[in-house]
Each structure stands twice: as structure tokens, then as C-alpha cells.
């Protein structure tokens, strides 16, 4: 099986660049997930405790992000981002050419999509916090912020963890779409390798294996976190 | 913004709507059938392992890589190039559709499984003690409850599949996204074109959302209507 | 009822409706230092609503609530910024014990008790812990300090909730049917704790269906009917010689039921 040498770390092997590409997949996914978590928290806050305007905005945003193909959003950030940067740059008198990196476009696009989905998860978890425990916080005189930080958030996070885990899995898979911007992550790298060597199946299978490894490993991590966050205290009632 | 340009682009992209709808509908149909099969497979021990492995692989990897693997990868095998399937598997349309079906089946089978598991044991036992046959229980109790339970998740899956069809544009198919991409490379006016395409997808997804709310109400009046007591 | 002692809690002209349902129709009630007031009345007569209006868990439509030197008279079903600050000061001087305990499930017994001292009152941790342990000892649960609420019986949870209320250094403690969610065999342990608080001279307002207990610990009994206070007197007066027909009927049915049960 000399084919397999192509995946190795020898002189003809693609092993090293594949590992690098896998790390790039992780990097862009983590960045996008964090953007999504921050945005998701904001939107969930808007939907749960905002006024009518904030609620409508949050609702509309979620509907749009759930209804538009991810790849269009990525194109929009990549091509559109370039258009915007160019317009702004030229107006400010900078010399061209202007560009927006694939990493930036991908991170923002996937982060914004994930934010809408994470918001749904967080909102559900927030609304599942037992009302009585919130009242117990109010009667001891907690401010809104303290109440959120000490009573609502810790309880909601436990409920939200499995859902956030699913969103993380989605983000990893969506990160493959960033390959259309030319960012050299796993998907892009295996395409290049497949084209160069004409070993299409081998390299796409290798790519699939990398994604499976990342999704499986992080699934285990989330399960661990879940078990830790429960710390046995909710086995009984609730 | 140039409204007449947007109008022209809108109409041009709509030209890809039939292909998008075609892939969407057929992949949901094929996916549902395969998903039912996967759940039947789960009744045996070996079948359960097979179904789990299938779901694991197809849910654990990006759809894009699945599409490429089928379109580019399968051609590398001599026995496939010489099989009766080759006339199909050399066509991007069939490769795209196959990838979409296989992918949808993995997600749908899990949704259906969740619905089946959520059927309360008591409801089934109540059917049994009132003398229903196994088939009657399946038809009158298990499936209606399971489908009702699975509906919200399935409506998300339906929308996901609409969005998934956009990926076939990467293997040269001229669906709405494919046309949009071509138009961008001709005109370089990405924002207007992409927003036009996005609006069409959004409209379709909103229709699905409304429809699913309506169906949900129809299927489970006990959760939405006040009974007169 | 001693006029010379200080008024801790005062309610005047309190009204509250839920939609068309007028639940409180002008309530006046004051508690002086050391009063133990039991509030009785039929289900739906508005007892919980009245109690929840004191820390503004429900915001009344009209009327005034005062705790210590602070008082608010909210209008229009919402609190202004200034009123919110006052309400938080009032809450810090009250203890509230819920029917369903409402312990924070993600915190241990000890953490439940020190939560407000640390994060609301900003007290030092070591001091808060020492005090919390003394309170837990008092309710007989010092050994459970590191347990989570889900691992406690209902009676134990309610005793933790009482310790949590005491950690407020409350000028008055409000109880909303503290034993109604408990299995009969667990009621006694909670009543015992409340009785000991009465003996210490704590100011308390207790909504309860335990008539025997009310008669025994209270300095005053209030009978609520359809949003009005219909009787207000010593246990002997209210239980022994109720003035209103409704109170008589309520008490008769209640003691009957108790006897049958
Ligand atoms: N949040 C609410 N929204 C609407 N109606 C309410 C609300 N809370 C209470 N009510 C209504 O107010 C009335 C009085 O309720 P409340 O809980 O104060 O009675 P209660 O005297 O405590 O009764 P119980 O002995 O059963 O606890 C009831 O008719 C109840 O339905
Ligand atoms: Mg009540």
C-alpha cells in the first residue's frame, strides 16, 4: 500500500500539512464559536428580558440566520467584506488593493450564524430556570446583575451545555465551508492534495477522518464538562 | 443601490429555483425512507451497530466533504466506473442528490428515533389492555405520538436541507446558489446578488416555519385548544 | 399590639387585582417588634398575594408597604428607579420563607445560606461562614453543610431555607405556608424551629393552615376573606369567639376536617 505513504510524514507524505490544516479547522471553529456565544448571550438577553423592540430585533435576526444558507453568508462576508473594506479604504485615501482574510470572513460569518442558534439554546435554558429560585434571589435583595450572575446563569448553563455541545459540532462542520475563501483548513487542504495526487477518495477519506476525530473528541470533552457541572447535585429531584 | 440590477439578478437567480426545489424535495423523500429503514434496522443487534456507525459517520463529517467524496472519490474505483450505476454517478446531479439523501437520512433517523423513544410506555400499555393489535398500536398510538413529538425537530431539518442544497453549487450544478456565484464572477457586485439569493431562501424557510406551526396545531389540538369543561 | 413598641412592618390601603380578579381590596396591617402574626383564610382568599406584596414580588395596584424606616407606594404596577432602590433596602431587612423552599439547587446548603451575605451585603466570607454555621446548627443541619438541596428531605430543605432567611438579619420574617409542601411526618421538625424563633421574640408573619400551631405561637391572628381582613385579634379572640359569620364557618369546617383527617 504505497498509497498510504501519501498520508505519512515522509518526504512525499501530506501528513504534516494535514495536521496543520486540522489545527486551522480547530482555530477558526473556536474563534467562531466564541463570537457566537457572546452574540448568543446578547440575543437571548434581548429575547427574555428586553423590551418589545429588542425582542423583535432578536427574533428577526434569528429567523434570518436560520433561513439563509451558510455558504451565502460566508460569500457575503468574503466578497461583501472586500467590497466594504475597499470602499472605506479608498474613501480614507489608502492605497489598494484591499482584502479581507478568509479567516476573518469565516469566523465572523459562522460566528453570526452560530450566535442565532446558540441564542435559542440559551433562551430555552434560561426560561427553564425554576421561577422560585429567582424569587428567592429577589427577596434577599439581589440586583438584576447579581441575580443573573449568581442564580440564573449557573443554573441555565448546566441545562444549556448539551445544546451548546451540538452547536459546537455544527460550527466544526460549517467551518469546512470556509474553504471557499481559500483559507487552508482541512477541507481546502484535502482538496488540494486530492487534486495534486489524483488520489481523490484517499484524501477525502482522510479529511473525513480528521473531522470525525475532532467531533468525537470534543463530544467527549463536552460530556465530561456536563458531568462535572452536575456534580451529582441534581440527580435527586428537579 | 441599483434597483433594476437587483431586479434582473432576482429573476436570473429564480431560474435556479426548480433545481433547488427538485433537490430539496427528493432528498427529503429519499432521506425519510432511508431513515425509516435505519430505524427498522435498529430492531436487531447487528443492525443497531450498523445504523449507529452510519449515523456517526454522516453526522460527524461536513456535508461538503461527503459531496466531494461521492463526486470525485467514487470515480477512482474501477468497479464503479464499470458498473451499471456509472451513467448516474458521473453526473453531478445524481452525486449531489445521493449525498443529500444519505446526509438527511442520518439526521432524520435520529429525529425519528427520539420521537419513538418519547412515546410513553403507559400509552402503549393502555392500547394493549384495550385489546389493540400490535399493528393498530403502531398506527393509532405509537406513530402519531412519535411524529407529533418529532415535528419541531423535523421542521428544522427540512430547513437545514433547503440550505444544504446550496452546496451542490460547488460541483458545478446551477441551482440558485450556483447561478448567484456565476453572476458574481461576471459582475463583481457580490452584495446585491447575494442578498437577492438570500431573500429567496429566507422566504422559502419562512413558509416552512409557518406550515410546521399550522401542522403542529392540527396534529395536537390538546395542546393548543381549551377544552370546554 | 403594644403601641409603645416600634412598628417594624406596615401595610396600608393595599389593593391588588389580577385582570378582573380583585384579590386584595384594601388591606391595613401593622406588626410591631416581637409580634407573631398568623394569617389564616380559605384557599384563594389572597394570603399568598398579600405576603408577596410585602417584598414586591407582586407589585400592588395601590397602597403603601413599609419596612423599618423605608416605605414605598408603587403606582401603575411598576417600580420607578428610586422605588427599586428602596425595595432592595426593604428586602435586605426581611426574611422570606417559601412554601416550596426555593433553595438554589446549584449551591450547597452552606452556600445557600452565605449567598446573600456575600453577594448582596458584601460581608466578609469568614464572618459569613461562621454565622451561617451557627444558624445551621440552630436548625439542626450543621452536618449537612456540603450537601446539595436535592439530597435533602423536604423538612431539611425548609429548615435550610429558614437559616437562609435568618442570615439576612431580618427585622421580620415572612412565612408562606412553610409546611404545606411537606409530608405529615416532616411538619413537626419545621414547626419546632419556627416555634423557637417565636420564643426568641422574632417578628414574624406566618400564613398557615396549621390552626393548632397558630393558636399556640401567635400573639395575633388575622383572618382574610375575599381580600378583606375580617378578623384581627388574639388567638383566644379569633379562635374562641370569632365575630364574623364567615370566620366561624371557616374555623368550624377546618377543625372538622382536622378531626376527620
Ligand atoms: N400571578 C397570578 N396571576 C393571576 N392570578 C393570580 C396570581 N396569583 C394569584 N392569583 C389569584 O389570586 C387569588 C388569590 O390567590 P392567593 O395565592 O393569594 O391565595 P391564597 O390565599 O394564598 O390561597 P392558598 O391557601 O390556596 O395558598 C386566586 O384567585 C388566584 O387565582
Ligand atoms: Mg397561598
Automatic annotation (TrEMBL), chain A:
**Where in the cell?**
Cell inner membrane; Cell membrane
Identify the GO cellular component terms for this protein: ATP-binding cassette (ABC) transporter complex
**Transmembrane: is it a keyword of this entry?**
yes
Tree of life domain = Bacteria
The record lists the membrane-crossing segments as: 20-45, 57-78, 98-116
InterPro entries in the record: AA_ABC_transptr_permease_3TM (IPR010065), ABC_transp_permease_HisMQ (IPR051613), MetI-like (IPR000515), MetI-like_sf (IPR035906)
> Which Gene Ontology terms cover its molecular function?
transmembrane transporter activity
The UniProt record lists the ABC transmembrane type-1 domain at 22-222
Its placement in the membrane is given as: Multi-pass membrane protein
Keyword annotations from UniProtKB, A to Z: Cell inner membrane, Cell membrane, Membrane, Transmembrane, Transmembrane helix, Transport
Pfam families in alphabetical order:
BPD_transp_1
Q: Which family does it belong to?
A: Belongs to the binding-protein-dependent transport system permease family. HisMQ subfamily.
Q: Which PANTHER family is this protein grouped with? A: ARGININE ABC TRANSPORTER PERMEASE PROTEIN ARTQ, CATIONIC AMINO ACID TRANSPORTER, MEMBRANE COMPONENT
Q: What is this protein called?
A: ABC transporter permease
TrEMBL record, chain B:
Which CDD domains does this entry report, sorted A to Z?
TM_PBP2
List, alphabetically, the PROSITE patterns matched. Answer: ABC_TM1
Record keywords: Signal included? no
Bilayer topology = Multi-pass membrane protein
Localization (cell): Cell inner membrane; Cell membrane
One GO CC annotation, please?
ATP-binding cassette (ABC) transporter complex
InterPro entries, alphabetically? AA_ABC_transptr_permease_3TM, ArtM/GltK/GlnP/TcyL/YhdX-like, MetI-like, MetI-like_sf
- Superkingdom of origin organism: Bacteria
| Family designation | Belongs to the binding-protein-dependent transport system permease family. HisMQ subfamily.
Protein name per the record = ABC transporter permease
The organism named in the record is Paenirhodobacter enshiensis
Automatic annotation (TrEMBL), chain C:
The record's subcellular location field reads:
Cell membrane
Q: Which GO terms describe its molecular function?
A: ABC-type amino acid transporter activity; ATP binding; ATP hydrolysis activity
Which residues are in the ABC transporter domain?
Answer: 9-251
Q: Which SMART domains match?
A: AAA
Q: Where are the transmembrane segments?
A: none
Q: Which UniProt keywords apply?
A: ATP-binding, Cell membrane, Membrane, Nucleotide-binding, Transport
Task: Please name the InterPro entries in this protein's record.
Answer: AAA+_ATPase, ABC_ATPase_HisP-typ, ABC_transporter-like_ATP-bd, ABC_transporter-like_CS, MetN_ABC_transporter-like, P-loop_NTPase
Q: Topology with regard to the membrane? A: Peripheral membrane protein
Q: Which GO terms describe its cellular component?
A: plasma membrane
Per the record, the similarity remark reads: Belongs to the ABC transporter superfamily.
Q: What is this protein called?
A: Amino acid transporter
Species for this entry: Paenirhodobacter enshiensis
Amino acid at each position: 500500500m504505497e498509497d498510504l505513504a501519501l498520508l505519512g510524514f515522509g518526504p512525499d507524505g501530506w501528513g504534516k500539512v494535514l495536521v496543520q490544516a486540522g489545527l486551522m479547522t480547530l482555530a477558526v471553529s473556536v474563534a467562531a464559536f466564541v463570537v457566537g456565544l457572546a452574540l448568543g448571550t446578547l440575543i437571548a438577553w434581548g429575547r427574555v428580558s428586553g423590551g418589545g423592540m429588542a425582542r423583535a430585533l432578536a427574533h428577526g435576526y434569528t429567523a434570518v440566520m436560520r433561513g439563509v444558507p451558510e455558504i451565502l453568508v460566508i460569500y457575503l462576508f468574503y466578497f461583501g467584506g472586500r467590497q466594504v473594506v475597499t470602499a472605506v479604504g479608498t474613501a480614507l485615501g489608502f492605497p489598494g488593493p484591499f482584502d479581507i482574510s478568509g479567516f476573518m470572513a469565516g469566523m465572523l460569518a459562522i460566528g453570526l450564524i452560530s450566535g442565532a442558534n446558540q441564542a435559542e439554546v440559551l433562551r430555552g435554558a434560561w426560561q427553564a430556570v425554576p421561577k422560585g429560585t429567582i424569587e428567592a434571589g429577589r427577596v434577599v435583595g439581589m440586583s438584576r446583575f447579581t441575580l443573573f450572575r449568581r442564580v440564573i446563569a449557573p443554573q441555565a448553563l448546566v441545562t444549556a451545555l448539551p445544546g451548546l455541545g451540538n452547536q459546537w459540532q455544527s460550527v466544526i462542520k460549517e467551518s469546512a465551508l470556509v474553504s471557499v475563501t481559500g483559507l487552508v483548513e482541512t477541507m481546502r487542504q484535502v482538496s488540494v492534495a486530492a487534486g495534486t495526487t489524483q488520489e481523490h477518495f484517499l484524501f477525502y477519506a482522510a479529511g473525513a477522518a480528521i473531522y470525525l476525530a475532532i467531533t468525537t473528541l470534543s463530544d467527549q470533552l463536552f460530556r465530561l464538562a456536563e458531568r462535572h457541572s452536575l456534580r451529582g447535585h441534581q440527580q435527586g429531584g428537579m | 443601490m441599483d434597483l433594476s440590477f437587483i431586479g434582473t439578478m432576482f429573476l436570473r437567480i429564480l431560474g435556479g429555483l426548480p433545481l433547488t426545489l427538485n433537490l430539496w424535495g427528493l432528498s427529503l423523500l429519499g432521506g425519510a425512507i432511508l431513515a425509516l429503514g435505519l430505524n427498522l434496522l435498529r430492531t436487531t443487534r447487528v443492525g443497531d451497530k450498523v445504523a449507529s456507525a452510519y449515523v456517526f459517520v454522516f453526522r460527524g463529517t461536513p456535508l461538503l466533504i461527503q459531496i466531494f467524496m461521492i463526486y470525485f472519490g467514487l470515480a477512482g474505483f474501477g468497479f464503479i466506473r464499470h458498473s451499471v450505476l456509472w451513467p448516474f454517478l458521473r453526473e453531478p446531479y445524481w452525486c449531489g442528490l445521493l449525498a443529500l439523501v444519505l446526509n438527511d437520512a442520518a439526521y432524520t433517523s435520529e429525529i425519528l428515533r427520539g420521537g419513538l423513544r418519547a412515546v410513553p410506555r403507559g400509552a402503549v400499555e393502555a392500547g394493549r389492555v384495550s385489546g389493540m393489535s400490535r399493528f393498530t398500536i403502531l398506527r393509532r398510538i405509537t406513530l402519531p405520538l412519535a411524529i407529533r413529538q418529532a415535528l419541531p425537530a423535523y421542521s428544522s431539518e427540512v430547513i437545514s436541507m433547503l440550505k444544504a442544497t446550496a452546496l451542490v453549487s460547488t460541483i458545478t450544478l446551477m441551482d440558485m446558489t450556483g447561478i448567484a456565484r456565476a453572476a458574481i464572477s461576471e459582475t463583481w457586485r457580490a452584495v446585491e446578488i447575494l442578498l437577492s439569493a438570500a431573500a429567496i431562501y429566507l422566504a422559502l424557510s419562512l413558509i416552512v416555519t409557518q406550515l410546521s406551526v399550522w401542522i403542529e396545531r392540527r396534529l395536537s389540538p390538546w395542546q393548543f385548544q381549551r377544552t370546554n369543561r | 399590639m403594644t403601641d409603645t413598641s416600634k412598628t417594624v412592618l406596615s401595610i396600608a390601603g393595599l389593593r391588588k387585582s389580577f385582570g378582573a380578579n380583585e384579590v386584595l381590596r384594601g388591606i391595613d396591617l401593622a406588626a410591631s417588634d416581637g409580634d407573631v402574626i398568623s394569617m389564616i383564610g380559605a384557599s384563594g382568599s389572597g394570603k399568598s398575594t398579600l405576603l408577596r406584596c410585602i417584598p414586591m414580588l407582586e407589585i400592588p395596584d395601590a397602597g403603601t408597604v413599609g419596612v423599618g424606616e423605608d416605605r414605598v407606594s408603587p403606582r401603575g404596577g411598576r417600580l420607578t428607579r428610586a422605588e427599586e432602590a428602596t425595595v432592595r433596602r426593604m428586602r435586605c431587612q426581611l426574611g422570606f420563607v417559601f412554601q416550596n423552599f426555593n433553595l438554589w439547587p446549584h449551591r450547597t446548603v452552606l452556600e445557600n445560606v452565605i449567598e446573600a451575605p456575600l453577594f448582596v451585603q458584601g460581608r466578609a466570607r469568614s464572618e459569613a461562614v461562621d454565622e451561617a454555621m451557627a444558624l445551621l446548627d440552630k436548625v439542626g443541619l450543621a452536618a449537612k453543610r456540603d450537601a446539595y438541596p436535592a439530597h435533602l428531605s423536604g423538612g431539611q430543605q425548609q429548615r435550610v431555607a429558614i437559616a437562609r432567611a435568618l442570615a439576612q438579619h431580618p427585622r421580620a420574617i415572612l412565612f408562606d405556608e412553610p409546611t404545606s409542601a411537606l409530608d405529615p411526618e416532616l411538619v413537626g421538625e419545621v414547626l419546632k424551629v419556627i416555634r423557637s424563633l417565636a420564643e426568641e421574640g422574632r417578628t414574624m408573619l406566618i400564613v398557615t393552615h396549621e390552626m393548632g400551631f397558630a393558636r399556640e405561637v401567635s400573639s395575633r391572628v388575622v383572618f382574610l376573606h375575599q381580600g378583606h381582613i375580617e378578623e384581627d385579634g388574639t388567638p383566644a379572640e379569633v379562635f374562641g369567639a370569632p365575630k364574623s359569620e364567615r370566620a366561624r364557618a371557616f374555623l368550624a369546617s377546618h377543625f372538622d376536617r382536622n378531626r376527620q383527617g
